[in-house]
Amino acid sequence: QDATLAGFDWGSYLEKSGYLAAPVTCFRHAPLCAQWDDICVGLKVEVLNSYTTLHAKVYWIASIVLLAGYKALLRFEGFEDDDSRDFWCNLGTADVHPIGWCAVNSKLLVPPQEIHQKIEDLKSYLMERLVGADTLPVDFHVKMADSMRFAFRQGIRVEVVDRSQVRRTRLAVVDTVIGGRLRLLYEDEGLGASGEVLSDFWCHMQSPLVHYVGWSERVGHSIKRTGPNVNMDTHPAFRKPLQDSVPHQFKRLRTVYMGETFFEKGMKLEAVDPLNLGNICVASVRKVLLDGYIMVGIDGVEIGDGSDWFCYHASSYAILPVGYCQDNNIPLTVPTGYVQATFTWPKYLEETGTVAAPGRLFNTDDIGHGFTSGMKLEAVDLMEPRLVCVATVRRCVGRLLLLHFDGWEPEFDQWVDCQSPEIYPVGWCEITGYQLQAPIGPE
Amino acid sequence: AAEGTGRKWEQKQVQIKTLEGEFSVTMWASDDKK
């Protein structure tokens, strides 16, 4: 369900669900995150006034009544306590400006007709309302434009996880960039004879799944070699020659010192299942790579050839020390043959003759992220990463968030990191022009 | 609110233009610290 075309109405939806949305300041990668502390209820703005008989485009002053992500509920000055004319606006896209913008741009401030008749002296009225009040940052729209410039463009080559075999990476070419999200075409099957896309993959440019060209060889990760007959350079879809990505285009991960007490092959841990992101499972370190990366296998479901191992960085939210689920009241998915109710780690370690990975190796610090359960947001369905969906924070455990996709069964819930680049404030899709998937069915 | 973010609140003189004339008011807005 394409909410952009259908016009998904976040305002009405929030009204029904209690107006709780994660603030923009929770999303470090989101446009204007650093400026959003300055946006608050009561702030005055100049906004397009359509309640007028004038032919010219005129504006009037409104106050922010409520904030939900990038969306603001506005009330025109003069309506006082009357909320019947309140309207939702996306501060990042709509014709909303700091006070003073109209004068600079030769636009007029004209009250809605029914207010105009009640105001005897417009200047005195506005002086009383505006002097000493707060308005939008002067550079609001400039900063917005700045934060929408990205280090990626069409034709940049990257290494990205192979969705058909998660243990390895593949070369891919950036086809589209929307709001920092990359549409990648796998190089060896990217385009058919008539130019149609055979296989693509979507992820944010800061995703842990995407790397610079040469990364796999550097850290010792498996990569599928591109066949000799593949040459995407010549395809008309790419107007410029392809260009290899380089390390500085990617997010720098937390430095990991791999001394004598780093992860070792065979150590046990708990890990988010990469193929079923709602499950946290009993898992094992299968291989230690360089630069703090490890290959992890889920106990009891491994095929045996290593094709289902998954690469995690030591700082990843998705690997957890043994006992983490029990300590935090999260159901642990145990290996086939074991029963969750009777499973204990000490017994399992003894039976398998293994040791637990030391707890201090994990990045489970509670970082005070600001999310709380019940907050609405826009989130990527990581099992179908093309889709950004209407979602709700269901649980917060340390840095982990359990996301529920509105309208879907709880079995589709996914654990994500509170700093995941694949979660966005309400209104992000509208700002970037990305399609938002509305909840299915009546909510 | 802007403390620590590299931004500060400042008083700004802003112009208001209506059908009845133009005048200025003093408001608060944040900006990058200079």
Question: Descriptors for this entry?
Answer:
heterodimer, A: 443 residues, alpha+beta, 7-stranded mixed β-sheet, 6-stranded mixed β-sheet, 28% strand, globular, disordered N terminus, B: 34 residues, mainly beta, two-stranded antiparallel ribbon, 2 strands, 0% helix
List the helices and strands and how they pair.
The complex is a heterodimer of chains A (443) and B (34).
Chain A: H1 3-6, H2 10-17, E1 44-48, E2 59-68, E3 71-76, E4 87-90, E5 96-97, H3 101-104, H4 113-116, H5 122-130, H6 140-146, E6 156-161, E7 168-178, E8 181-186, E9 200-204, E10 210-211, H7 215-219, E11 222-224, E12 243-244, E13 268-273, E14 276-288, E15 293-298, E16 310-313, E17 319-320, H8 324-327, E18 332-333, H9 345-352, E19 376-380, E20 388-397, E21 400-405, E22 414-417, E23 423-424, H10 428-432, E24 436-437
Parallel strand pairs in A: 6-12, 7-11, 14-18, 20-24
Antiparallel strand pairs in A: 1-2, 1-5, 2-3, 3-4, 6-7, 6-10, 7-8, 8-9, 13-14, 13-17, 14-15, 15-16, 19-20, 19-23, 20-21, 21-22
Chain B: E1 7-18, E2 21-32
The overall average pLDDT of chain B, rounded, is 82
Radius of gyration of chain A: 25 Å
Q: What is the averaged pLDDT score of chain A?
A: 91
Q: Give the strand content of chain A.
A: 25-35%
Short précis:
Chain A is α+β, with helices and mostly antiparallel strands.
Task: Tell me what you see in this structure.
The complex is a heterodimer of chains A (443) and B (34). With 443 residues, chain A is an alpha+beta fold. In chain A, 13% of the residues lie in helices and 28% in strands. Chain A contains ten helices and 24 strands. Chain A has helices spanning 3-6, 10-17, 101-104, 113-116, 122-130, 140-146, 215-219, 324-327, 345-352, 428-432; strands at 44-48, 59-68, 71-76, 87-90, 96-97, 156-161, 168-178, 181-186, 200-204, 210-211, 222-224, 243-244, 268-273, 276-288, 293-298, 310-313, 319-320, 332-333, 376-380, 388-397, 400-405, 414-417, 423-424, 436-437. In chain A, strands 6, 7, 8, 9, 10, 11 and 12 form a seven-stranded mixed beta sheet that branches. In chain A, strands 13, 14, 15, 16, 17 and 18 form a six-stranded mixed beta sheet that branches. In chain A, strands 19, 20, 21, 22, 23 and 24 form a six-stranded mixed beta sheet that branches. In chain A, a hairpin with an 8-residue loop joins strand 21 and strand 22 (414-417). Chain A is globular, with a radius of gyration of 25 Å. Chain B has a two-stranded antiparallel sheet with strand order 1-2. Chain B is rod-shaped. The A-B interface holds A 34-35, 37-38, 40, 44, 98-100, 102-104, 106-110, 122-123, 126-127, 130-139 and B 1-2, 5-7, 9, 12, 14-23, 25-32.
